[in-house]
Amino acid sequence: MKAPFLFLIWLIISTPVEAKGQSIATVATVSPESDQNEPYRSRHFMVDGVADLKVFTPSGDIEVVYNPDLKGVKVDLYVKRGFSLWSGSQNLDNYRIIFRQNGNAITTSVERKHPAPGRFGSDDVKFTFVIQAPKEILTNLRSMSGDILLNGVVGRQFLQSDAGNLSLKNSEGELSLYSSAGSVSLENNNGYVQVKTVAGDVHIEKNRGEARIRSVSGNIYSREMMGSFICATVSGNIDASFDSVFEGVHLETITGNVHLELNEVQGFDVKTETMKLNLDQLPASYISERTSGRRTTMLKLGEGGIPVNIKTVSGSVEIKPKGN
Amino acid sequence: MGDKQKLSAALLFLLVLMADGELLKAQEDPFMTEQDSLLAEPFQMDDHIIYITDRWKFQPGDSLQWASPDYDDRAWTTVSTYLTELDLAFTEWSGTGWFRLNIEADTSVTGRPLALLINQHLGASEIYINGKKVLELGKFSTEPLNAEPNENKDPRVVIFPEQKNQLIAVRYTDPNYLENLELLGSSGFRFLFGDWEYHREAKISFLENWISRFMFFLGVLVAFGTIHFLLYIYYPAEKRNLYFSIFAFFLAILVFSFYRIELSGTADQTIFLTRLIYSAEVITLIFATRFTHSIYKHQSNKYLNIYLAAGAAVAGIVWFYPVQTLWLREIFILFSVFEILRVIGLLFRQGKRGVNILGAGILFFVAGLLYSIAVNLEWAAGDVSMGSMTGASFLIISMSLFLSREFSVTQKGLENKIVEIRELSEKNLQQEKLSKQRELEKKLLEAENERKSLELEEARALQLSMLPQKLPDVHPYEIAVYMETANEVGGDYYDYSIGKNGELVVTVGDATGHGLKAGIMVAAAKSYFHTMVHESGLLRMLARMSSGIRNLNMKMMYMGLMLVKCKKYEVEITAAGMPPALHYHGKSGLVEQILLKGLPLGTKVDYPYKTRKINLQPGDYLLLMSDGLMELFNEERNMLGLEKIEQEFASAAANTAQAGDIIDRFVQLIRNWAGDLKNEDDITIMVMKII
């Protein structure tokens, strides 16, 4: 019943979230889940060096954006509260809200004081963190059910949400994103990326560097990738497209299909293990060598050199040149 | 895909990964060096908490060596101690594992008791500090059947040794991890540290306030429910008591469940109590609505039955599918609240007596809810449960007051009816008593009357026996007589006597009054008449009779008497207190009054009576009568009068030949005049025709 109402409110008050041009004013508009104009709690943490930020919320979103005009870390906590007619379960007294700084280590956390009903019961209180951060920062951002957005930072980043979606944009560094049911979106990042999902899909675009992706049932999509790519899924499909590959590509699935686009400018040594291999889109001139076994096919594309391993137990594999 | 399937798939995936050395690298955790600090500074926080992270090193399996501070855990993964589905998604987890957390402890927190605060702990565990076991929560066992999850959430005391680097290792098992992951979304624990003194006192304070308030409220609910249930037991026709008591009992169950769930330490308890709360909310509202329906009696039974059936179905569905049917529960609750308000509104419009009590209760209840909402939203300070409980208390009291008032009104009505019935009964009894008394009196009277009637019959017989058995047949007279007494024994008298010389003396008398005394008077008169009729003259006879009657000392009893001595056609008449005799002259057809004034016999006055002699002619008639004829009343209370008698006498004498015919004409006249009225005085008519 509440969803349509919230959707209408969201339509009215929200504005699209863009990855660039952040300012304080922009930040204030990117809190569609908050029903407060003013933060419930706000604190500006001054740091000497690189801040190490830990954020945890049981329900609600986390948004971290780069603010070039800000020294230190500004954390705003917005609370969206429902109400309980009887038990007071939505009362903030039931939650432990911590804003803590120990040197450069900053912890902003909300936890229930008593066991949460979890998915068995409803928990309508949402604690949304909106954080303005310097360019260089170490983050550990976790939400049990909300979305997490991280934009325009540099450093080691860790994002985890059980049910929400994860979005990481315009960042550099060691980037780890774990999701259970939500999808993961990476765009225009540079560095080492590690993603784990259970059921959520992974979208990765314009990523430069090494990406390691694991999923149980989610599909994996990549576009305009530059770098190395290692991904595995049990039942999802893999759809990967590369502008250029640095060290190699490893794609593996049990029951899903694999679709791979490679740049003809580069040469590859491809090893596929599948019952069905489709090379129809590859120009014959691009296939320098081809050796086929019962399940295994070895290909040398162009001049070869960069290893590409593709495995699927029951799915199909299609390889074609980028842009077709 | 279900959670179990996901876990199986993850396991399969891991097996695949294990076979591929290339991907093993992907399992390495990027935050192996994460370390927390244990500082006293956080004691300054409101709730005296020392925060530690929930992200600990984790390794499934079991080995006591893992408690050692020297053990190298760098290869372990870092997960949240909550152990969510995501934490376990890429881990081979069978319910038992170890957690390790290295922390740096400030000297201000070592060597002193700290409170281990248990936010969540769904399984059983052993807690080691620097390799030494210091606590056991629940009963730890690697055998799931032997492990007993911790149910005690009270803070526990721990003391860190006075050293900088501390290792906390938790040997943890959750025998119900699959169910907990499915229903609660996690399987692990969450520890924090805090100021021991503060948290111990806070716990005691919490229990004191919480328990005392809830127990008092529970007691109130159970007491009200029990009272009204007993009222229903003793008077099942009043079903409102039943609905109210069930409402109160389920509200008590709801309150108790809220109380228990706050103390619940295990997932089983939490799930059971949550089911109970959801279903009890529905049932409570069903009977609150049914209660209001029972006050407003214009609702169709079909509608009520449909509502009850729907409510029961919702309660059942909510019990079995509490998560999936939250929307159904909310819709039903909203509908029920609306229905209660609608019915209350109708009752107000209907002007139902006492509904303002209910209205006030609901007003307070709503105020309590608004207060709770305000507290929830932090617009007001206070305790949500206090607002709810106070509002609900007013509602309960108002409902009970309403029922009590209804009961009182009914009772008063009954008492009034009883008083009315008692009064009516008393009146009836009095009436019956009076009636019986009257009946008795009537019977007595009847008996007396019967006796008197018998006596009067005897007296009448005596009186009649004193009247001549036959009328004289003495030439030239033809005589006819008519007598009608007012009572059984009349006071009129007529008689005759024939002397040795053929002299005929007739008499007509009238004793004052009627009945027995009159009868005696007649008897005396008859005695005097027959004794003296031929021995003395008429005047002397009257005088002697008057004297004799006076000597009888019958107070206020007198006797009127007319004597007529007839010698052939010569007649001598004397009278004492009698109406005039009427003489019809046959030749002229005229009626002449022969009026002889004189007091009745028996008075103390020696009245100088007179006589009058007249000569009769054949064809003449003489009419002697008592005053009963003249004074005969009709329905308009008019007396017959002498004039009508004369006219009738003249008419009858002119048109008839026999004396008896004239008597018949007078009898007819009497019937016509008096109608159904009983004559109030004796009537005696004697007609003498001169042949």
What do these coordinates show?
The complex is a heterodimer of chains A (about 325) and B (about 700). By secondary structure, chain A is mainly beta. Chain A has two helices and 25 strands. Chain A has helices at about 1-15, 25-30, and strands at about 40-45, 50-55, 60-65, 75-80, 95-100, 105-110, 125-135, 135-145, 150, 155-160, 165-170, 170-180, 185, 190-195, 200-205, 210-215, 220-235, 240-255, 260, 270-275, 275-280, 285-290, 295-300, 305-310, 315-320. Chain A has a 25-stranded mixed sheet that branches. In chain A, strand 5 and strand 6 form a beta hairpin. Chain A is elongated and about 65 Å long. The model of chain A is unreliable at about 1-35 and about 120 (pLDDT under 50). Chain B is built from 16 helices and 21 strands. Chain B has helices at about 5-20, 20-25, 85-90, 175-185, 195-235, 240-265, 265-295, 300-320, 325-350, 355-375, 385-465, 515-530, 540-550, 625-630, 640-655, 660-675; strands at about 35-40, 50, 55-60, 75-80, 95-105, 115-120, 125-130, 130-135, 155-160, 165-175, 190-195, 475-485, 490-500, 505-510, 560-565, 570-575, 580-585, 590-595, 610-615, 620-625, 685-690. In chain B, the strands form four sheets. In chain B, strands 1, 3, 4, 5, 7, 8 and 10 form a seven-stranded mixed sheet that branches. In chain B, a hairpin with a 2-residue loop joins strand 15 (about 560-565) and strand 16 (about 570-575). Chain B is rod-shaped. Chain B starts with a helix and ends with a strand. Residues about 1-35 of chain B have low confidence and may be disordered. Chains A and B meet through strand 5, strand 6, strand 10 and strand 12 of A and helix 1, helix 6, helix 7, helix 9 and helix 10 of B.
